[in-house]
Amino acid sequence: MRTSRRMWLVFFLGPATVVFATFITYPILSALAFSMYAWEGIGRRGFIGLANFARLFATFPYSGLLVNAFWHNVLVFVVTMLIQNVTALGLAVLLARSPWGTRGYRVVFFLPVMLSLVIVGFLWALFLNPIFGLVNKFLTLAHAGALARPWLGDASTALLTLIVVNAWRWLGFPTIVFLAGINAVPEEYVEAARIDGAGEWDVIRRIIFPLLAPAVTIIVLLTFIGSFNWFELPYIMQGVSGAPNRATDVLSLLFYRTAFGEVDTGLQDIGIGSAIAVLMFALLLTVSAVGAVLLRRREVELA
Amino acid sequence: MNRPLSGRVAAQAVLLLNAFLVLAPMVIMGLSAFKSTREIFQNPFGLPGVWRWENFARVWVEAKFALYFRNSILVTMASIIIILILGAMAGYALGRFRFGGNDLLYLYFLSGLMLPIRLGIIPLFILMRNLHLLDTLWALILTYAASGLPSAVFILTGFFRTLPSDLDSAARIDGAGEWLIFQRIMVPLVRPALIIVAVYNLIPVWNDFFFPLVFIQTDRLKTLPLGMTTFFGQYSTDWGALFAGLTLAALPVVTLYALLSQQFIRGLTAGAVKG
């Protein structure tokens, strides 16, 4: 009986454990190890300690590319927070009052989240085409032709344009999360505040926002993870090199280029690529851990 | 609650504007799919003069969309079936058996929720090459199955734990074998959880672009998102075909969403919204 029980456990748990260990745990742990070896193509040579990191931080062209890409990721995070998530919060506050058509609005707002970023990227690349694209045509029709420009070709607007397209795709997600958070605020808190003479804005600021803290933490965390994993949209719209002139280069693109080679420069270095992966990994894991702790602490306060 | 009319009108204006900003690009995409390239350039906002269904036929046959769809369907279905079977088996063992290392194994699976597997792409690429799986759909299926397991184990273990313990005890006394108990009694009872797991994984797997980009070279093995990049390279001057391709690619997801929007909204925000 005991051995048969053990055999059943192996039978039930074995396949999932093997698949997970082989295709998730092993690659991730190996990525850490790979960063400390010398590489020729995809052939592993000797152990070189932290030399890849030293080259990444201190030698041309890697150090410049790394810093450039990193600040772009930071910008993506900050601007997304400001335009996408603040808008989402505003929409959620409006929807929480259950105005006419709330169900319909929810469904419509969330729709782009379903679309693949490949579709979204190509669609907006066509719309933003400098000559034939409908964005510049619309501006001309609206007598704002002076604003028309090559949005994706101009280094000063390319990254911001990508962030706006990204926000178009994602906006519904934080909206729904905030809406669920607001709807979870107990009605009697709001009633009590109203009886005490609180106005609309007081209710929002003093009761809803503080109780929304867990939802805000989750959205900040997910926005951070998303911003630092940003890959598909810049790849589809601007290519693997972060055109124009690295103005839209981000860490994932740099990582992909160093890992698998760049079409134009042939630059491939698995050691450096793995070092970039380890840095991104450390950053994402640290922030996720801090976020998880903050979240738990806030939950305790609410209880 | 009674609010001033002006406030409600302003709120409706904001919500309508946002709905318009979401829908207008998609409607224009759908309309442009029926136009000729010249018409798209000259009349981008209006209805097509002639509805050119042939744009779709061109994309479906010549641009191999039929093939890309087939590959995407195969990969998505196989991944989700593996996630459901392996996830249910593991969740059953973790949720209903007490044994040494149970908690540890559970936490081990859960660690996958935090790990960004894309950062392990170099070792994964070399692993797939050594297993001779590069440039096969199996490379994708196994990667998606493995990355879907943590959430599946998390959700299903939780569900299995909530089932009353008399159920399997009674069946065991009646002499039912372990597999029979699992398959005939337990799995049907967690069907809602299986649906949650499937919905949670469906859209990310269907839409994924990164892993096909790395693993797949051969054109006839490309999934829809990767095939689209080939298509956009080849048809870059034929905007009617490009919009038809985008519309066709968006159609299955939009249709599914129209039918099951609440399930998808709940499923995709499940990690971020509690209870």
TrEMBL record, chain A:
Gene3D superfamilies: MetI-like (1.10.3720.10)
Domain ABC transmembrane type-1: 70-291
PROSITE patterns with a match to the protein in the record: ABC_TM1
Transmembrane segments: 7-29, 70-95, 107-127, 207-231, 270-295
GO biological-process terms attached to the record: transmembrane transport
Compartments it resides in: Cell membrane
Protein name, entry field: Sugar ABC transporter permease
Keywords for the protein's UniProt record, in alphabetical order: Cell membrane, Membrane, Transmembrane, Transmembrane helix, Transport
